[in-house]
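Study this:
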Amino acid sequence: MFWGQITPERAIAYLHHYPHSESGTLIYAIKYGGAKTTATALGRMMADECGRNGFFSGIDVIVPVPLSRDRERKRGYNQSLLIAQGIACSSGIAVGGNVMERTAFVQAQTELYRQKRHDNVEGVFRLADAAAIRDRHVLIVDDVVTTGATMAACGKTVMEAGAARVSFIAIGMSSS
């Protein structure tokens, strides 16, 4: 998924996401249905299970994929931040909730094909606090990974700003 874009230290998705399935309904509720406690609880569950296998060993800071200000204001929350907070509760790793910003929102990724997804997120993330990630192992958190374009763009942003390593975690991975 990340071949030719970025080489993460580790990458994992908790569920295989199928739209209109039970996992799809759960993720839809987290993204659009206001299921904030579900997002945090899933983050904790995912961290508990992945932590048993040493996934979080050596990770210094958790950075959620940011939403644009307008999108977060309309939704009322950032689901990736809530998932990250759940992971932090279980793992003890601090969340850098304001470390990265999304500088633009062109179009929802769900509406785009593979190459367009990469183009849509190229250069739209920037670090608001580069010192928080410099020389550190950063864990990027998102809700669903489809092509990996968003995570790769976030990973490139933190690596270019001086992170030592980057890893990725998501609730779901979709093949659609």
Q: What stands out?
A: The helical segments are 22-32, 36-51, 69-75, 79-91, 114-121, 149-160. The chain is about 40% helix and 20% strand.
